[in-house]
Amino acid sequence: MRLSNTQQLFSKTKKFKLTGDNIFKILAAVVAASALVILLIIGYTLAEGSVPVLREFGLSFFFGQQWNPIAGKEAFSILPYVLGTLATSGIALLIGVPLSLGIAIFLVEMAPRSLRLPISYLVELLAAVPSVIYGLWGLFVFRFWMLNYIETPVSTYLGWIPFFSSSLKGLNIFTAGAILAIMIIPTIASISKEVLSAVPNSIREGAYSIGATKWEVIQHWVLSYGRSGIFGAIILGLGRAVGETMAVTMLIGNAIGPAAMPTSLFSSSQTLASLIANGFMEAPRGSLASSAYIGAGLTLLFISLLINVGAHLVMTRVFKVKGGAVE
Fold it and tell me: In whole angstroms, what separates CA 183 from the centre of its chain?
């Protein structure tokens, strides 16, 4: 006789036993779910704290340019800081990605065995340097290099172009983006090196057997095989660049309001992270200014999530990742 649905459910429940495997599955599920729970709690906290400023300014909070925390004259908009975040991160990728791939390709395909391990350790060691150290080095050394050898010559010969025109101080979007590029190189280079090392030697040997040169093997076979992993490494580097605080705060110039609009490569600005770091502790608790900084944090969280979700969609639809292999 066929059992009813209730009897079948009871039968399955009765068979379930707390074996070691089942306990491990439950614990693994709880740990995996905790990441989502933490993200939801953070998002809810930021959204709740952002309500006063969003109720007061509405969409102008996202599309305006004013930032005035003075009581009675409050005006808060984060567009310049969103653009500053995107500009510095974009510069970091433009500079950092080619250098990182060059390091990874050299270590995997060209470096003698005696150099691979020391250089790999050195690259990974750079990832352990605190961001404030990068900021101090950038403030006292790196910005003067940028000012003397890049910004001044470029401004002298191309200053008539608005994109390169600005008062030169060495504290600007370009310097901040360049220091971010240095900071993301260890992340992208280390992961890319592991990805390229995982490419089967049979692929290289097959390419050499049909007469391909070393550059052709790297370009058309090795990089193509590991493109999904390299893309993931770039996204991780971008995530660090978007959320970086201390080094950027020291080097970007910390302009406020309309002056923070990134109208030039050499103009001062701020990112969302540096804006929060500079002013949140000074804002009275529960004030409209405090809500504005929390709203900036919510926007930064949304941008980070958008980058990661977009990267996942690209990897699954463009690269067609199935079962860990790229088709």
Answer: 11
Tell me the pLDDT tens digit for each residue of 266-281.
989 999 999 999 888 8
Q: Counting beta carbons within 10 angstroms of the beta carbon of residue 243, is it exposed (0 to 12), middle (13 to 18) or buried (19 or more)?
A: middle
Q: Are 263 and 114 in contact (CB under 8 A)?
A: no
CB 85 within 8 A of CB 242: yes
Residues 282-305: tens digit of each pLDDT: 888 888 989 999 999 999 999 999
Q: Where do runs of H (alpha helix) occur along the chain?
A: 5-15, 20-57, 60-63, 79-105, 113-127, 131-137, 143-146, 152-158, 173-197, 201-209, 214-217, 223-225, 227-243, 246-251, 272-279, 288-317
Q: Is the pLDDT of residue 153 over 60?
A: yes
Asked whether 165 and 76 are in contact (CB, 8 A), the reply is no
Q: Please name each of the domains of the chain with its CATH number.
A: 60-326 (1.10.3720.10)
